[in-house]
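SEQUENCE AND FOLD
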Amino acid sequence: SDLTAMQETIPGQKDGRQIVIWAYKPDRALNDLNLFDMNGSYLVTTLSNIKEKGYASLDEVKQNISSAVKNTKKGDYIIDQINKSANKENLVQLASEIHTAVDTTTITFETSNIPGFGPEFDVIGAAAAMTKGEFLGPIKGSKAVFVMKAIDYRPATAKTSYKALIDQMNN
């Protein structure tokens, strides 16, 4: 997995920061090995590549660029299919028409991730501003195209203490 110096986590690991710190020590060399205690499990790591500072070569970024372009084009295609549909306000029929499924989740102003999709900030922000019964979409997210209907709306309760939020931000 490619790492960046300020990365906090590593995919599949809860406490990956110690690995990032190890990998970025100046005395690291290609193929260095290290054993990390990951809360009772052990992880053997090897430094398989060291990238020099500066711009990456086209070969290094070609796969990511290709994937990004394909995802953008797929999103545009799906949005076009949704916009052409006569079922835009019937989510079950629309989902059937474009060969997907309807899913539900609770979105609040404090939501940071959509289950199964991750951080879709534009979608979450739009959803948090919806009123009961309102349809919204299509919205192109980073991992999917979303069409939403607000099935309920509850005003946020006033916070009496911000201590938990402050503690979370400090840790």
